[in-house]
């Protein structure tokens, strides 16, 4: 009989929760524990609007793998959306427009054009739907995955099949606390910067309003990171993308700019009730890190790690695709495919 494997998934954002659930669902006999210091509404994943819209620059280790991640992620969510669990799981279909007054390229997306059932240029009448001098546009139908529903849904499913959850902080630059596991899957998002001293991981700061505006049924993107994305209970208004900015607090100048840009794009948002404003640091890394490693801890132990972080502004979009890949790497590690120690703490 196969010896029981003990696996620790570090991190309980969309990446960690999805990975842990997929692992436990596929290998019921493995002992899977999630360790994290923040859960659900305290994670970055809760800040996201959750629209399935990868950037054209989203990058994995190769173009083929990147494409496979996106295909796997989309079909994973689409299957949930087609099931009766849609509302509970926070996955719903949404259509809308991307407009630009100057840049035709922002209305194109090679990943989505290949994947979505509807992705087409906006016609002349559609370019007049929103105030503004819109010259270029695209209409498409995609998915919104709302972490506020999806994370508790995943947690419930994970615990129902025997997954364990522990609240704990892992000290900076040290995996010593978890070196008694057969494998650690490191899904710490921006936390990996300190945990692994990863200089390639850079914050891209974002800020959004969450408003009550149930009359908004479609998403709209305008120039300069302006977006309006309806979820189940709230509409997310954004935004900004500030490279290498570590400011976690809401910035009043960004608030003013976001409010002005969004209400210009959709004037009836002026009547919306603001329920909260929040900022977050997108864990940006090129490429996203999903790879095997062996760390020698200070006690001299060789610890197997699968790193799984650095999804930038697209972690909700891509989590199921990268998680499937991370699970494959975990299986390779636990089946005894040997690799040499790479990192030393
Ligand atoms: C304004 C904004 C809007 C966004 N909109 C979208 C969108 O529409 N679509 C999309 O796909 N993406 C979007 N994103 C990006 C998305 O939020 C991230 O890519 C995603 O949340 C990353 O998930 P994660 O699980 O890696 O990280 P997180 O959600 O940050 O989770 C990290 C986990 O690791 C744990 N952790 C970290 N360090 C430690 C430690 N030392 N010890 C213990 N635990 C630790 C944390 O407690 C947490 O549980 C947006 C981001 C922002 C800021």
Automatic annotation (TrEMBL):
<dbReference type="GO" id="GO:0005737">
    <property type="term" value="C:cytoplasm"/>
</dbReference>
<dbReference type="Pfam" id="PF01266">
    <property type="entry name" value="DAO"/>
</dbReference>
<dbReference type="GO" id="GO:0003884">
    <property type="term" value="F:D-amino-acid oxidase activity"/>
</dbReference>
<keyword id="KW-0285">Flavoprotein</keyword>
<dbReference type="GO" id="GO:0071949">
    <property type="term" value="F:FAD binding"/>
</dbReference>
<feature type="domain" description="FAD dependent oxidoreductase">
    <location>
        <begin position="6"/>
        <end position="329"/>
    </location>
</feature>
<feature type="binding site">
    <location>
        <begin position="312"/>
        <end position="317"/>
    </location>
    <ligand>
        <name>FAD</name>
    </ligand>
</feature>
<feature type="binding site">
    <location>
        <position position="313"/>
    </location>
    <ligand>
        <name>D-serine</name>
    </ligand>
</feature>
<dbReference type="InterPro" id="IPR006076">
    <property type="entry name" value="FAD-dep_OxRdtase"/>
</dbReference>
<keyword id="KW-0274">FAD</keyword>
<feature type="binding site">
    <location>
        <position position="188"/>
    </location>
    <ligand>
        <name>FAD</name>
    </ligand>
</feature>
<feature type="binding site">
    <location>
        <position position="282"/>
    </location>
    <ligand>
        <name>D-dopa</name>
    </ligand>
</feature>
<feature type="binding site">
    <location>
        <position position="227"/>
    </location>
    <ligand>
        <name>D-dopa</name>
    </ligand>
</feature>
<dbReference type="GO" id="GO:0019478">
    <property type="term" value="P:D-amino acid catabolic process"/>
</dbReference>
<keyword id="KW-0560">Oxidoreductase</keyword>
<dbReference type="InterPro" id="IPR023209">
    <property type="entry name" value="DAO"/>
</dbReference>
<protein>
    <recommendedName>
        <fullName>FAD dependent oxidoreductase domain-containing protein</fullName>
    </recommendedName>
</protein>
<comment type="similarity">
    <text>Belongs to the DAMOX/DASOX family.</text>
</comment>
<dbReference type="InterPro" id="IPR006181">
    <property type="entry name" value="D-amino_acid_oxidase_CS"/>
</dbReference>
